[in-house]
Amino acid sequence: MESPLDPAGSGGPDWEARYQAGDTPWEKGCAHPALVEWLRENRLTGRILVPGCGTGHDVRALAADPDALVTGLDLAPSAIARAESIPVVGGESYRLADFFSESAFEHGAFDAVFEHTCFCAIPPALRPAYARTVSSALKPGGLFLAIFYRNPSHDGEDGPPFGCSMEELGDLFGGDFQLIRETVGIPTFDGREDREIIRLMRKLPLA
Ligand SMILES: C[S@@+](CC[C@H](N)C(=O)[O-])C[C@H]1O[C@@H](n2cnc3c(N)ncnc32)[C@H](O)[C@@H]1O
Q1: Ligand 1 within 6 A of 61 CB?
Q2: From the CB of 135, is ligand 1 less than 6 Å away?
Q3: Which tens digits make up the pLDDT trace of 7-28?
Q4: Ligand 1, closest atom to CA 57?
Q5: Torsion of CA 74, 176, 142, 188, to 10 degrees
Q6: Domain 15-203 class, CATH top level
Q7: What residue ranges do the domains of the chain occupy?
Q8: What's the pLDDT tens digit per position in 190-206?
């Protein structure tokens, strides 16, 4: 599959320019609090992919597990350079690539995918491709742990971040994935309270 996204001409943000300008309001300097909490009670192990990883805070939180081998993927060179400049905590590495590109990663190789602010950052028209790409990254039975930004605080349809409804999530991921658990009211960053959910899904064996 060729990438449906031309980062330079997609009409979406020029992510590299945003990093170079320091215009990165999503950059919180730490892993998402709900991921940190989830990892206190649960584990994600094996090969894990984090699309749109930015500077890698979530990657490092996941890589603190000695049984996790985590690949952070982002298309912005400055984000990857920053991530790679931070001392490794475990089995993490980074890759400069467009998530939608056929050669971005080894398909069917991952035990888990972790999502946080990549899905809400891409143009909504690419969401079906996003769901297919997550599915193709995973082994059958692989886990998809996602923090979805349902209703960002800005009004109207301007984004990113672009919100999403529960119905849309059900439609996008209902075919290839089984929903294991969904939690609202999760710990989060200032300004995102009650705007996100964390969902654990499993890729169906025959998907
Ligand atoms: C809103 S930022 C979030 C970064 C990180 N997840 C965080 O929370 O700090 C969205 C990130 O997705 C990356 N991104 C957007 N489209 C992408 C694509 N098609 N492939 C890979 N990365 C992408 C951007 O470069 C940016 O780093």
Answers
A1: no
A2: no
A3: 434 557 899 999 999 999 999 9
A4: 9
A5: 60
A6: alpha beta
A7: 15-203
A8: 999 999 999 999 999 86
